[in-house]
Write a structure and sequence with these properties.
TIM Barrel; 288 residues; alpha/beta
Length: 288
């Protein structure tokens, strides 16, 4: 029986910086990236929108900023950081998932603040792409949209704005990874499975499997070919972070990107051996 495999390759962080933007476009034009998730609250968002207009084959979704971005509501609240870390004085969201999670666990994150910020970002996407009837897919920084309480807000807004697909980090494809990353994958897998049930109940689509979590920021040609070799029947989303190396970004957000290897992921995404591996295994690349 012929296999029925589909591989959606999503590059996150479109809009984060000019070098990341150009790397994502390169990974689409010369590589396997089929979609990208746009940060509408980042320093290079406007440039990303211009590049998107020049790259019509690249599907654009929303990378919902929960941490690591400007607060588009432009007011200090339970979801903002004390440090304007992009250096221009604008109010920013929490700089990393750890302080956000500490406040979340302590009950100090007001869900009303989150909902106001999320809705502002969704509306901003529609302002940037006025011809788009509905955002094709949504994911979030650090996958924090799957947390209890937050997941309900996201699903409610997806139904309101007719967003039909969400990222669900569950049923993870095996990848070589550090011990700490494997430990971190356990709660994500549990929460992801619960979130998948909520999505199905709400009629919101998602991929059957997810890859790229265990080696986030460190993929290479060998690791991508290993993932491809394990792709099961159904739809698998592969998360990538391709880009050209950005020392300025690494310096301004060291807690998030100190050891990120954007260039390795870009090189791997454009490696002919990776595309041949996909073709040789009869895997369809991108959406139908």
């Amino acid at each position: 029986m012929a296999r029925s495999c589909r591989f959606i390759v999503t590059a996150d962080d479109f809009g984060l910086s000019p070098l990341i933007n150009r790397g994502i476009v390169q990974a689409h034009r010369a590589g396997i990236v089929t979609a990208t998730a746009l940060l509408v609250n980042a320093p290079a968002t406007d440039e990303a929108v211009e590049l998107a207009a020049q790259t019509p084959g690249l599907q654009i979704g929303l990378h919902l900023g929960i941490v690591e971005g400007y607060a588009l509501t432009a007011a200090h609240s339970s979801i903002t950081d004390s440090l304007p870390y992009f250096g221009d004085g604008r109010i920013c969201l929490h700089r990393h998932w750890r302080p956000f999670l500490r406040r979340y666990m302590a009950g100090k994150i007001r869900f009303s603040d989150l909902e106001a910020e999320f809705e502002t970002q969704i509306q901003r996407f529609h302002q940037l792409f006025p011809s788009v009837d509905a955002i094709p897919f949504l994911n979030s920084t650090q996958h924090l949209h799957i947390l209890p309480g937050i997941s309900g807000i996201v699903i409610r807004l997806c139904k309101k704005y007719r967003i039909k697909n969400l990222r669900v980090p569950h049923r993870l494809i095996h990848e070589p990874a550090t011990f700490s990353r494997r430990v971190l994958s356990l709660p994500y897998s549990v929460l992801g499975s619960l979130f998948a049930c909520k999505c199905r109940a709400a009629g919101i689509g998602h991929a059957d499997y997810f890859a790229g979590f265990l080696r986030c920021g460190h993929q290479d040609e060998k690791s991508l070919r290993a993932i491809i070799a394990r792709v099961p029947d159904g739809t698998t989303e592969l998360m990538l972070h391709p880009g050209f190396d950005d020392d300025a970004l690494r310096g301004s957000l060291p807690w998030a990107y100190a050891d990120f290897d954007w260039l390795s992921e870009l090189t791997a995404a454009c490696d002919p051996a990776v595309r041949h591996e996909i073709k040789d295994r009869g895997i369809l690349l991108g959406l139908p």
